[in-house]
UniProtKB/TrEMBL annotation:
PROSITE patterns: PROKAR_LIPOPROTEIN (PS51257). Belongs to the YjiK family. It is found in: Cell membrane. It holds the Pfam family SdiA-regulated. GO terms for cellular component: plasma membrane. It comes from Pedobacter aquae. Gene3D superfamilies: TolB, C-terminal domain. This is SdiA-regulated protein.
Length: 301
C-alpha cells in the first residue's frame, strides 16, 4: 500500500520543485533592474586620442588616458578640455586600459601584461613590467583597482584561463605578490544576460546581428571592455562594447543592466567614476576623433 502512494507523491514533489525552481529563476532575472543612458555631456578629444582605449581619474578635473597603439599616458584637463601632459612609458603596443593605484598607474595590454608606472607624477618615473597568467587568446581589455581589497580586477573578453567561452570571468591580481589568482573572482554567463533581456527588442537585434556575422553561438553578446567601481556603494560596473551596455554587480550578483543609447557611443572602450560618483565613458573614434561622455542621468526602463 505504501508503494502505491509514495511514487505519485514523489513525482508530484519533483514537479512542484521543478516548477518552483523555474519560477524562482524567472523572478530572479526579472528582479534585475533595467535602465538606459541617453543624456550626457560630450568632451571631444584631440585627434591623437582617436583610439582612446582606457581612462582613470587622477582627481575630479584630471583624467589619465591610454590609446591602443602608443605607449603614452595622456593627462586630460576636463576644465580646459585639452591634454596638459604626455608620459611615454613604453614602445608602441596594444594598450587597452589604465587604473590608478595610489601614486602609481597600471596599464594593461591585450595579452594581459601589466605595466606599472611608479610615482607617475615624477618627471622620470620608474617603469616595471609584470607578466601574468593571461595570453593573447584571453583578449584582455579591462582592469580596475579594488581599493577595499587592495587588488586589481581583470576581466577576459574572450575565453577564460580554462578555455571556457560560455561565460566571462573576472580575476584578481594581487598587489602584494603581483600574481593572478587563477580561480575566477566572478563569472557572468551569457545565459544570465539573455535571460534578463528575454523578449526585449534588444535581444532580437543582438541575435540578428550575430547571425549576420555567422556566429553559431548566439550567447556571445557580452564582451567586457572596461570596468569601474562606484566610490560610494562599491558596485562593480562592467562595460560591454558589444551591444553597448553596462552590467552592474552587487555582492557577486547582477543588480542592474544599463543600455547605452545614441550615436555618441561609437565604440565604448573606457569607463571611470570621479570621487562624486559621476560616470564617464570614453569612445574610440571612427572617421572622427574619440570622445569622453559625462553621464548626466540614468533612466529606468
Amino acid at each position: 500500500m505504501h508503494k502505491v502512494y509514495i511514487i505519485p507523491f514523489l513525482i508530484s514533489s519533483i514537479l512542484i520543485t521543478s516548477c518552483t525552481n523555474s519560477s524562482l529563476k524567472k523572478k530572479k532575472a526579472q528582479a534585475v533592474k533595467k535602465s538606459y543612458i541617453k543624456n550626457f555631456e560630450t568632451i571631444n578629444l584631440d585627434y591623437q586620442l582617436k583610439e582612446i582605449s582606457g581612462i582613470t581619474f587622477i582627481n575630479d578635473s584630471l583624467i589619465a588616458a591610454v590609446e591602443d597603439e602608443n605607449g603614452i599616458v595622456y593627462f586630460l584637463d576636463l576644465i580646459e578640455k585639452k591634454v596638459v601632459r604626455k608620459l611615454i612609458f613604453q614602445e608602441p603596443g596594444d594598450f587597452e586600459d589604465i587604473t590608478k593605484v595610489k601614486n602609481d598607474l597600471f596599464i594593461i595590454n591585450s595579452k594581459g601584461s601589466l605595466t606599472q608606472i611608479v610615482s607617475f607624477k615624477d618627471k622620470r618615473p620608474e617603469v616595471i613590467q609584470h607578466n601574468t597568467a593571461f595570453k593573447k587568446k584571453n583578449d584582455i581589455e579591462s582592469v580596475v583597482y579594488d581599493e577595499a581589497q587592495h587588488q586589481l580586477l581583470i576581466a577576459v573578453k574572450a575565453e577564460d584561463l580554462k578555455g571556457n567561452e560560455d561565460k566571462k570571468a573576472v580575476y584578481t591580481f594581487s598587489l602584494t605578490n603581483f600574481k593572478v589568482d587563477e580561480e575566477p573572482y566572478l563569472n557572468i554567463s551569457h545565459q544570465k544576460i539573455l535571460a534578463i533581456f528575454e523578449g526585449d527588442r534588444w535581444e532580437e537585434l543582438s541575435k540578428a546581428f550575430l547571425k549576420k556575422l555567422g556566429n553559431e553561438n548566439l550567447n556571445k553578446v557580452f564582451s567586457p571592455t572596461a570596468m569601474a567601481i562606484h566610490p560610494q556603494d562599491k558596485d562593480l560596473y562592467i562595460l560591454s562594447s558589444t551591444n553597448n551596455f553596462i552590467v552592474v554587480i552587487h555582492q557577486q550578483e547582477i543588480k542592474q543592466v544599463i543600455s547605452l543609447l545614441g550615436n555618441a557611443f561609437t565604440q565604448p572602450e573606457g569607463m571611470a567614476f570621479n570621487s562624486k560618483g559621476e560616470l564617464y565613458i570614453s569612445n574610440e573614434g571612427k572617421k572622427l576623433s574619440g570622445n569622453i561622455l559625462k553621464i548626466t542621468s540614468i533612466h529606468d526602463k
